[in-house]
Write a structure and sequence with these properties.
Blueprint (H helix, E strand, L loop, with lengths): L9 H7 L25 H14 L12 H12 L4 H6 L6 H12 L3 H13 L9 H17 L6 H11 L3 H13 L5 H11 L18
């Protein structure tokens, strides 16, 4: 695309079906695991869509300049990057901007709803032993970060307790919390380090023998 194409007038857009968007450069081909599935990955997904649209010259507020061809191309791009649930939500809608509006209505949560959703994910995020200790710790810390970014009330003491409880090893949890009480200045970072060390060789499934915290 050699420079940004001039936006047509609204009348020209509708009458002549001309477009100022560079659809040949539209690159929204997400891996299946990144397809929109619901509120849990809405923010990531819509960000990717916005980036792809910006790359072809679309800017916020440009809807009035979109032609029927633009709407169809946008709809096609969206439909090929969403899962079965979102597909059911937009059944019968043909225009790309209308599809985006409907998906936003379904999956873009308000602040409180997002807080509830994120905290619920964290609350139920237990280690199933199907992943390594390191991978679980990284995923748990990511959920902690997302909760704090959404202003969920989650101080370091709560973070430590939730993490220790969700490891799923009662003996380890008991000794770990005893160590925390004996060391009131202990940090979540230290607890993560102890967990990573104590379970470094654990590739077991749930129900295996307990592991004691070596630093407790």
């Amino acid at each position: 695309m050699n420079g940004k194409r001039k936006r047509p007038t609204q009348v020209t857009a509708k009458k002549l079906f001309t477009t100022y968007l560079d659809w040949d450069s539209f690159n929204l081909k997400l891996e299946k695991e990144n397809h929109l599935t619901g509120a849990d990955n809405w923010h990531m997904w819509i960000t990717m869509v916005q980036i792809a649209l910006a790359a072809i010259g679309y800017e916020d507020g440009d809807r009035e300049y979109l032609t029927s061809i633009d709407e169809a191309r946008l709809a096609q791009g969206i439909i090929s990057n969403i899962g079965e649930g979102p597909l059911a939500a937009i059944e019968g809608i043909r225009e790309g901007t209308a599809i985006l509006d409907m998906l936003m209505q379904y999956y873009s949560p308000g602040k409180h709803a997002r807080q509830v959703d994120l905290f619920s994910q964290l609350w139920h995020f237990s280690w199933d032993r199907k992943t390594t200790a390191s991978d679980y710790m990284v995923a748990f810390r990511r959920l902690i970060r997302l909760n704090r970014e959404a202003d969920v009330d989650l101080d370091q003491n709560k973070e430590i307790k939730m993490f220790v409880q969700r490891v799923g090893d009662q003996d380890w949890a008991t000794k770990m919390m005893a160590w925390v009480r004996q060391n009131p200045s202990s940090t979540a970072e230290q607890v993560y380090d102890i967990f990573a060390f104590d379970f470094r060789d654990c590739h077991c499934h749930k129900g295996s023998g307990a592991v004691q915290p070596s630093s407790a």
